[in-house]
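Weekly structure sync, notes
Attendees: PL (lead), two postdocs, one rotation student
Agenda item 3: pending single-chain targets
PL asked that the sequence for the first pending target be pasted directly into the notes so everyone works from the same version. It is reproduced below exactly as submitted, 91 residues in total.
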Amino acid sequence: MRLRIKVTHCPRRALALADTPRPDCPTCAGWGGISHDYGDPETGEYAGTDWEPCPCWSQWALTLLPLPRPFRRRTPDTDPWATDTSNEPPF
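Predicted structure, written out during the meeting:
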């Protein structure tokens, strides 16, 4: 088991401890899974990709620390160039 720290975004941003695929795995070559392309049976055109996880890796993650939401500065919804009471130019 190769552990790493990563940022998760669902349901809320947090730091999580996650497993990493084995880099020397002969089945998946360190990608953590095998992709299989498939086509439409009638036309033979590409229709999508299935992804099969490799047994060298588990997709679990343990939340370590929830991260705070980014600070957003609130500005009033007023137009700085609006001429409400003054008839002077803005410059």
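Discussion points:
- The CA atoms of residues 40 and 52 lie 19 Å apart.
- The chain has a mean pLDDT of 83.
Action: rotation student to compare against the earlier draft before next sync.
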